[in-house]
Amino acid sequence: MIELRDVSKIYQIGEERVRALDHVNLHVYPHEFVSIIGPSGSGKSTLMNIIGCLDTADAGQYLLDGVPIEAYSEYELAQVRNRKIGFVFQSFNLIPKLSAEENVELPLIYQGVKRSERVRRVKEALEKVGLSQRAKHQPTELSGGQQQRVAIARALVTRPSLLLADEPTGNLDSRTSREIMEMFKELHSQGNTIVLITHDNDVAREAKRIIHILDGRLSEVKL
Amino acid sequence: MILSFKMALRSIGANKLRAALTMLGIIIGVMALVVLVSLVSGATGTIGEAIAGLGSNLLTVTVTDDKGSPVRLSDLKSWVDSEPAVAAISPYASATLTGGRGTESDSFTVYGVTPDYYEISSQQLVIGRYLKNTDVDNASRVCVLDENTATEVIGYADCVGQEIRLGGVPYTVVGIIETEETLAARLLMTGLNAYVPYSALIRLSEDVGTNVTTFYIGPSEGYAVLDAEEAMKARLLERFREDENAFRISSQNLIEEAMNNVNSVLTILLGGIAAISLIVGGIGIMNIMLVTVTERTREIGIRKAIGASRGNILVQFLMEAVVLCMLGCALGIFTSWAILRVISVIIASTEMKLPLRTDVVLLSVAFCFLIGVIFGLYPANKAAKMKPIDALHYGG
Ligand SMILES: Nc1ncnc2c1ncn2[C@@H]1O[C@H](COP(=O)(O)OP(=O)(O)O)[C@@H](O)[C@H]1O
Ligand SMILES: [Mg+2]
C-alpha cells in the first residue's frame, strides 16, 4: 500500500540544514496497523505529511498503491487526499465556523456526493464516533476529545483505504486518549489500514507493528 | 455551485461590518453610475423633446450688425418670393407688457410676427383666424391668444371678438391657437401669450423697431433645411458686404446635434467617473479578500488536506468576491432607485421622467460582476496556489 524508498527531506533554515528524514525506507501493507514512535523533532510529522501527500520528498521515491506520487497531477493529488486518505491531526484542524456535521460533510462535498447521500453518510460517521447528539455544535462548543472524534468522523466519512493519524491523542488527557485509541483499534478490526504517530509508548503499543524514528531514521521494533 | 454560493454568503455574513464597509465602494460606484446617467438622460430627454417640439426644420437668423442697411419687412417678403427654397419668413420680436381685460392687468408676453409664423412654428388654430397680411400692412390691433391665455384672461377659450388691452391699447381677439404642450413651452413660456402683427408691436414697444433683427425661416417643401440655409446665407452675405459676422443663422438640427453631443460627452464623462469609483471599490474588495485569504490560510490548508483541489479553493474565494460585489451592486441599485424616486417626487411638476434605466442597471450588474471576477481572481488564486503543508502550519 505504502512504499517509501530512500526518502529524504531536508529543511534549510538560513545557513543550517536540517535533515528531517534521512533515507527512509518503509513498507506498509493493506490492513496493517502501524504506529510510528519517536521523540519530538525526530521527523514524525514530516514523514506523515509525505505519506499523506501534503508534502513532497526532496529525494527518494514514494509509491502509493504502486503508483509513484510524482506521476499524479496536482488535481489528482487532491483527489487522492480526498478519497484514499483520511487524515487526523494532533490539533484536530476543524474549521471553526462550521458545525460538527458541516466539518464532516466537507470532504464529501469536494467529492461531489449528492446531498441526500451526504446527509446519510455524515450521520453514519457521527454515529460511529458517538457524537450524533453534537452534530449541530461548533468546534468551540466541544471538548478536545469530542473535537478529535469529529475529526475522525471527517476522516472516515469518505471511507478511505488509508487512515493517517499524527499524534491524535497528543492534546488529550489520558482517559480520552484511551477512548480514541479504542476507536482506532475498532477501525482496524473493521479492515482499515492505519498509520498512527505518537511519542507515547503506551499508545504505540496498541498497534500490531511499531516503528521507531530518531533524527529522521527508522528502525523496526520486533514484538 | 449553489453550495459554494451558500458558503460565500456565510463567510460574508460572519463579518458583516467588514463586508458592509467593503461593499460601500461598490455601492457608491453603482449609485454614481445609475443615478447620474439616469439624471442626464432624463434631463436631455426632456430638453430634446422640447427642442423637437419647437418645430424641427426652422432656421433662425439674428442680425447683429446691419451695416447701415437694416432688414425691413419688405425685404423678408421679397426674399420669400425670390428664393424657391424658402417658403416662409417671419420676423420675431417679443415684449413683456401689462394687459388684461377691463381693469385687470397681468404680465403678457407679446410676440410680434407675421402670418408666415403660423406655418413656421407649426401652431394649430382652434377657433377664428390667424393674423393676416392686411393686419400687418395696417398694423391692425388684433391678436391671437393661446387657449391657456384665453381661459386665464377671459374665462373661456371661445372668445373670438372679445377685446383685451395690451400695453394700454385695446386689441381684438381674432383667433385662438392650441397651447404648446411641450416641456420647454411650460418651462420657458408659461404665463400669458399674445401674438400680434409685427407692425403693431412696433407701436407697443420701444425696443421693437422697423428694423428686423431676428426672423424665422421655414424651408419650402421638397427642400432641405440646408438648401434654405445656403440660399439665405448667400443673400445675407451679399447684403452685409460679405461679412460673416454681421449675422448668425442657426438651425434646430444644429442645436439638436449639439445637444446630442453634450449628452454623449456627459454620459461618457459620468460613466467614466462611475467606472473609476467602481474600480476603486473593486480594489477595496481585492484588499479585503487578500486579508481574508491570509486570515484563513489555515482553513485553506485544512480544506486542501481533506481533498479540496486548487479549483475548489479558487471558486470558493472568487465566489466570495463576486457575491460581495453583487450584493454591493444590488444595494447600490436599490438605493439609486430610491434616490431617483425621491428626485422625481421633488421635481414632479416638470414631468421629467426618471425611470431606472434597464440598460444602465444591466450595465452596472455586468460591470460589478466583472470587477468581482477581476479583483477576486488574484486573491483567490493566491489562496488556491498555497501548498497544503505550508497553509496548515501557518500561524501554528
Ligand atoms: N517547515 C519546516 N521548516 C524547517 N524545519 C522544519 C519544518 N518542519 C519541520 N522541521 C524540522 O524538521 C525536524 C522534524 O520535524 P517534525 O517532523 O515536525 O518532528 P516531529 O513531528 O517528530 O516532532 C525538526 O527538527 C523540525 O525543526
Ligand atoms: Mg509532530
How would you explain this protein's 3D organization?
The complex is a heterodimer of chains A (223) and B (396). With 223 residues, chain A is α/β, with parallel strands linked by helices. Chain A has a domain at 92-156. Chain A contains seven helices and ten strands. The longest helix of chain A has 16 residues, at 174-189. In chain B, 58% of the residues lie in helices and 17% in strands. In chain B, the strands form two sheets. Chain B has a six-stranded mixed β-barrel with strand order 3-4-9-6-8-7. Chain B has a four-stranded antiparallel beta sheet with strand order 2-10-1-11. The two termini of chain B are 32 Å apart. Chain B has helices at 2-13, 16-53, 73-82, 116-120, 133-138, 147-153, 183-188, 198-204, 225-239, 252-295, 297-305, 310-346, 358-385, 388-393, and strands at residues 59-63, 86-91, 93-100, 106-113, 125-128, 142-146, 163-166, 169-177, 192-197, 214-219, 247-251. Chain B contains 14 helices and eleven strands. Chain B has two domains: 2-52 and 257-395, no CATH class; 66-242, no CATH class. Chain B is elongated. The A-B interface holds A 49, 52, 54-55, 74-75, 78-79, 81-83, 87, 89, 91, 93-95, 97, 106-107, 109-111, 154-155, 158 and B 3, 10-11, 14, 298-299, 301-312, 387-389, 392, 396.
